[in-house]
Specification:
9 helices; single chain; 244 residues; 73% helix; mainly alpha
């Protein structure tokens, strides 16, 4: 019978492995990690690693270890090759993360530190969720698929469903599923985006929807740019970008 700890070790191996295509894509100019996300994760991963270990986790410790090392390296790369970091949402998440870490320092309780760190880690994920929604081509789908598989296997390494032990692996799997759905299925958003364009056409008679909206991922990418431009109060006809 396969030992439970083997699942945790395989999950850790996949977590380390997932950074290889991600880093390669960064240097190739295809992936642009979000600076705010990896800044927050770099700060909080060390806290999670030690507090999770102090809470009694052993078989599932490998993924936190991989994250502590890999995401710190990604953050260093994001300084030069990254995306965002100075927007209102980014700053809000960074402030929230700082408050969470400060609260951990004050409590000096490993269990409280673990829960607070998960909240902070989620705050760090929000900018990447937004980026994956509007700019799916700036994330590496293969890397996210590998780490999602690793987090799924990590669930089988749980030796207890005590919330202190189980909540972090469960959070990781659920959060990664959210991102991977945005990356794998931009088609699900295409219908919604086209409907929003139709509404825009009704409010502006001169606005027209091009007939060549057919490639879901590139369409969502370009429309993401369009809506971000629109929200800034600079409505411009930039749909010519679809014609490339």
């Amino acid at each position: 019978m396969v030992s439970i700890s083997v699942f945790g070790q395989i999950a850790g191996f996949l977590a380390f492995l997932s950074y290889i295509p991600y880093i390669h894509a960064i240097f190739a100019g295809k992936t642009k990690p979000h600076r705010a996300t990896y800044a927050i994760w770099s700060m909080v991963n060390i806290v999670i690693l030690f507090s999770y270990f102090a809470s009694g986790a052993r078989a599932t410790i490998w993924i936190p270890l991989a994250f502590a090392i890999g995401q710190m390296f990604i953050f260093l790369l994001s300084i030069k090759y990254g995306f965002g970091g100075a927007g209102k949402l980014d700053i809000l998440c960074l402030v929230g993360a700082f408050v969470g870490i400060l609260s951990w320092i004050i409590t000096k309780n490993p269990v409280a530190a673990l829960y607070l760190s998960i909240v902070v880690k989620f705050l760090g994920l929000i900018p990447t969720i937004k980026k994956s929604y509007y700019h799916p081509k700036t994330e590496n789908t293969l890397s996210w698929a590998i780490i999602t598989l690793g987090s799924f296997l990590n669930l089988f390494a749980l030796t207890s469903f005590n919330p202190v032990i189980s909540v972090y692996p469960i959070y990781l799997f659920v959060s990664e599923i959210v991102v991977i759905m945005l990356l794998f299925f931009p088609t699900l958003r295409l219908k919604q985006v086209k409907q929003q364009l139709r509404e825009q056409r009704l409010s502006s008679p001169s606005f027209s929807i091009p007939s060549y909206i057919t490639s879901p991922k590139s369409v969502v990418e370009d429309l993401g740019h369009f809506y971000e431009t629109k929200r800034k109060g600079k409505i411009r006809k930039i749909l010519w970008r679809f014609k490339r």
